[in-house]
Design brief:
about 950 residues, alpha/beta, Isoleucyl-tRNA Synthetase, Domain 1, Isoleucyl-tRNA Synthetase, domain 2, 4-stranded parallel beta sheet, 26 helices, about 35% helix
């Protein structure tokens, strides 16, 4: 009869004879306290320099750092970006490359100017408020901007280091370094010399608040309430007499552009109607019976509803082509306050972009305020007026409105059109509208003289860029289409900005012919000065004479004072970070958020293709944005912001890093208290795996290693699993696609190891003799597991991996980060064995399920109290012997049978022909290993032990 009561005891305590785990590696990570110590140790032993020296002969791996902006502390998006970069760099290093990572910062531009100007305006600031930025000497202002950027660069550097990000922090780059500024100016010079740089008047996105042009990447869209109007342009000339006197009606959401109107556009194949007003809705004082309008037939209904037409008749329908050659009067022609400034004719021009989706099917053309308007007007020789000043107010080229701000112009424009009898409708709509992402204020399109880089001249930047995109590896691949469509459709690149803090477009323009001076000698003088003194040299008194030299009179030349777009600056970093440091170009990888398809990836591509003829990267990886746990955008006002500094203080950087690597970074990520707590639990399981390994490797020596041929199948299966994970990790290191890798490692630790292999081999490791082949085999596998897991975890969990490595291999200057990924023997790979053991583990579920049912019923307390019967199909009986099944199922015995199982047997759906009949184990429980065996009690010397444990104890006593 089975019983837990041991045979008569000699009362000896055998606990000291068991090989219990021993390790200094604590169960609790205590990461917030321990991690700073590891950082200090790595600094002390010069880890970064030692890695560089150790891998000097290896092939370089270059992940070129897209520079974060030196403006404020880090947010969670910064942490995501740098952690992902660090994992990829560390993995490349451990996979056999030389990953020399140069972190950098973007230091110029409007956001920093804005902060410095805020200090000027702040009544409680150091200037006590009231300082006009324009009255501050430019060199003094630039010095304040430089100091502001330097402060935040240092803050961010320490915060990145706290996240465990490894890099050449001492040799970091910054766009405001003198050498960087010189290189940026030299890159501009390349476009000057190859002819792609030109100055032209055309519409650009303009911020009236910041008084500068903006790049597409500096614009975001928000709902905005805009005024609208319908107005008629009286036809004064047309091929058909019945059209003369009728009013061609347009609709616009920018009433302020009416003074800048110079043409109208129609669709040649659109059906237009000549409509007569027969009646107006009550209270409508804008439209008069008898007025005749021209508009698209498809939009008559919407127009009538919007402007309040009670009754109308249509004289005829005609194709837009009939409007060819027609002229209209500007609706403000004859307006007294306009002082005759609107007396010109307005031509009607065919435009292939005109549709009937909204409005009237006729488009008013203001060439200074729209890209399509500009191109259509230029194609027909129409001049481009400059009606709006840099602050958003009307100039003298908008007579009658001078000094009025365009965002307050709708009322005056409505009034003027009403006075002239041409306003047909007015109102407001709320729609998505572009805003500056810095000031959060709406922007406008405004034609101003700017410096551009041509996309389609002899340099063929667009065509070459599209070819480079086709040859680039994208992770994920949909990034290819996104950046490709942007490059295909973009206009010429506006690179000039009307600000003070940045690298000047350091060129001269000949006042006699308006042509930029193309002289390499002058550019070389500028380069030498910038390298010695920084770009401030451009603003020093006498700079023009200094750079032009004795052979030219500075009075004959305009010194350009615009600065270059910061996207050009960051786009040219490859020139002074990679090439000047001897790193290979193109870089292996650029890695940033998905918004950088229109930002840094885009500008880097155009800049490198334009100056070198090829892309600066071989591959592009993009990640998503970070949202809160419910999928909302983070906002201080919502109180849902997760700051990386707070996470490291509460949990440690390794938890934040684990969150990154457990997420699908190609999509938007979520984070919050619940998610971080979940990551902490996942981390605990990984740490416990490492601790168990270390505890059971105590005293392990190389001589204990067992050859593969002498190992049981269970150990060989674990080694095979290591080869599968090794292939997965090496593929991720090569492809930069880490999605799912660390969840797979966690699953291996939790499911394959802790819940299976460790549970099974615990008995052998604790209770077998030290010389036992089974125990030696297990410890050999544990050695391989420790070496593999510490190396594989090192890229993602650098602090924990270091602690687990040094807990086993203590050293004053050693480090897991000086190791490579272990090279695993090819013979460990055994796909046939893996297939067999997949079957074995499925069968095991039928046994463990029966045991769990007995445990739940109170029949047993532990699986070692059981000795079930396992019924298998005849062909499965030879899979494993009964004693091995007992080991795997952690029972004290097990009987195999191919006889039909009774109806009461335990089964699992989907595993036909397999069943378990539960039975308790006969005999007594061994005091040392706790197995229940009939042999317990048969030893006179050790009556409470089984034969195995008796032999081990006797051997230890003899020793």
């Amino acid at each position: 009869m089975t019983t837990d009561t041991p045979a008569p005891s000699d009362t000896r305590d055998y606990r000291g004879t068991v090989f219990l785990p021993q390790t200094p590696f604590p169960m609790k990570g205590d990461l917030p306290k321990r991690e700073p110590g590891w950082l200090a140790r790595w600094e002390k032993i010069g880890l970064w320099d030692r890695v560089r020296a150790q891998s000097a002969e290896r092939q370089k791996f270059v992940l070129h750092d897209g520079p974060p902006y030196a403006n404020g502390g880090l947010h969670i998006g910064h942490a995501l970006n740098k952690i992902l970069k660090d994992v990829i760099n560390r993995a490349a290093q451990m996979a056999g490359r030389d990953a020399d990572y140069i972190p950098g910062w973007d230091c110029h531009g409007l956001p920093i100017e804005w902060k410095v100007e805020e200090e000027y305006r702040n009544p409680k600031g150091k200037h006590q408020g009231g300082i006009d930025k324009d009255s501050v000497p430019v060199l003094d202002f630039r010095a304040e901007c430089r100091a502001y950027a330097a402060h935040w660069l240092d803050v961010q550097r320490e915060e990145f280091k706290r996240l465990g990000v490894a890099g050449d922090w001492a040799g970091r780059y910054a766009t405001m370094d003198f050498a960087s500024e010189a290189s940026i100016a030299a890159e501009i010079g390349k476009f000057l010399m190859n002819g792609s740089l030109y100055r032209g008047l055309r519409p650009v996105m303009w911020s009236p608040v910041e008084k500068t042009a903006l790049a597409e990447a500096e614009v975001e869209y928000h709902d905005h309430k805009s005024a609208i109007l319908y107005t008629g342009f009286p036809i004064v000339k047309a091929a058909s007499a019945d059209l003369i006197g009728a009013e061609a009606v347009i609709w616009t959401t920018t009433p302020w552009t009416i003074p800048a109107n110079r043409a109208m556009a129609y669709g040649a194949e659109i059906d237009y109607a000549l409509l007569t007003v027969d009646g107006v809705a009550e209270g409508n004082a804008l439209i008069r019976p008898g007025q005749r309008f021209i508009l698209a037939e498809a939009l008559i209904g919407a127009f009538a509803k919007e402007v309040g037409l009670a009754a109308f008749s249509v004289s005829r329908i005609f194709k837009g082509a009939e409007l060819e050659g027609a002229l209209a009067a500007h609706p403000l022609r004859g307006w007294e306050k306009g002082e005759g400034g609107y007396a010109f004719d307005v031509p009607l021009l065919a435009g292939d972009y005109v549709t009937t989706e909204a409005g009237t099917g006729l488009v008013h053309i203001a060439p200074s305020h729209g890209e399509e308007d500009f191109h259509l007007s230029r194609a027909h020789g129409i001049a481009v007026p400059e009606c709006v000043a840099d602050d958003g107010t009307y100039t003298v080229q908008a007579p009658g409105f001078v000094g009025i701000h365009v965002f307050k112009a709708h009322e005056p424009v409505w009034a003027a059109l009403t006075e002239m009898g041409h306003l047909a409708g007015r109102g407001f709509i709320t729609h998505s509208y572009p805003h500056s992402w810095r000031s959060k204020k709406p922007i406008i399109y405004r034609a101003t003289p700017q410096w551009f880089i041509a996309m389609d001249d002899a340099n063929q930047i667009r065509a070459k860029s599209l070819a480079a995109i086709a040859a680039t590896h994208f992770v994920p691949d949909q990034g290819r289409n996104r950046i490709g469509s942007m490059v295909a459709a973009r206009p010429d690149w506006c690179i000039s900005r009307q600000r003070a803090w940045g690298v000047p477009i350091a060129i001269f323009v000949d006042k006699r012919n308006g042509e930029p001076l193309r002289d390499q000698t002058v550019l070389d003088r500028i380069d030498a000065a910038f390298r010695a003194e920084g770009a401030d040299a451009w603003y020093q008194p006498g700079a023009a004479a200094r750079f032009l030299g004795n052979e030219r009179n500075p009075d004959d030349y305009e010194q350009v004072m615009d600065i270059v777009d910061v996207w050009f600056e960051s786009g040219s970093t490859h020139a002074f970070v990679l090439r000047d440091r001897g790193l290979p170009v193109p870089a292996d990888l650029y890695l940033e958020g998905s918004d950088q398809h229109r930002g840094w990836f885009h500008s880097s591509l155009l800049e490198s293709v334009g100056s070198n003829g090829f892309a600066p990267f071989k591959a592009i990886l993009t990640h998503g944005f970070v949202l809160d746990e419910t999928g909302r955008k983070m906002s201080k006002s919502l109180g849902n912001v997760t700051a990386p500094q707070e996470v490291t203080q509460q949990y440690g950087a390794d938890i934040l890093r684990l969150w990154v690597m457990n997420s699908d970074t190609a999509d938007d990520l979520r984070i919050g208290k619940g998610i971080l707590a979940q990551q902490a639990e996942l981390y605990r399981r990984i740490r416990n795996t490492l601790r168990w390994l270390l505890g059971n490797l105590s005293g392990f020596e190389t001589e204990e290693t067992l050859p593969l041929a002498d190992m049981p199948e269970l150990e060989r299966w674990v080694l095979h699993r290591l080869t599968e994970l090794d292939a997965r990790i090496r593929k991720a290191a090569a492809d930069y696609d880490w999605n799912g890798v660390y969840p797979e490692i966690h699953a291996f630790c939790a499911t394959d190891l802790s819940a299976f292999y460790f549970d099974i081999r615990k008995d052998s490791l604790y209770c077998d003799a030290a010389s036992s082949l089974r125990r030696r085999a297990a410890r050999t596998v544990l050695d391989a597991l420790h070496r593999c897991l510490t190396a594989w975890l090192a890229p993602a969990l650098p602090f924990t991996a270091e602690e687990a490595y040094l807990a086993r291999f203590p050293s004053e200057d050693g480090s897991v980060h000086l190791q490579d990924f272990p090279t695993l023997p090819a013979e460990w790979r055994d796909d046939a064995l893996a297939a067999k053991w997949e079957t074995v583990r499925n069968i095991r579920r039928v046994v463990t399920g029966a045991l769990e049912k007995a445990r739940a019923a109170g029949t047993i307390g532990a699986s070692l109290q059981a000795a079930p019967s396992l019924h298998l199909p005849a062909e499965a009986l030879s899979l494993l012997p009964a004693e091995t099944w007992a080991e795997l199922c952690i029972t004290s015995g097990l009987t195999l049978s191919d006889a039909p199982a009774p109806d009461s047997a335990f089964t699992v759906d989907g595993l036909d022909g397999i069943a378990t009949v539960f039975a308790t184990a006969p005999g007594h429980k061994c005091d040392r290993c706790w197995r229940v065996l009939e042999e317990v009690g048969q030893s006179a010397a050790h009556p409470t032990l089984c034969r195995r444990c008796e032999a081990v104890v006797e051997q230890r006593d003899a020793a």
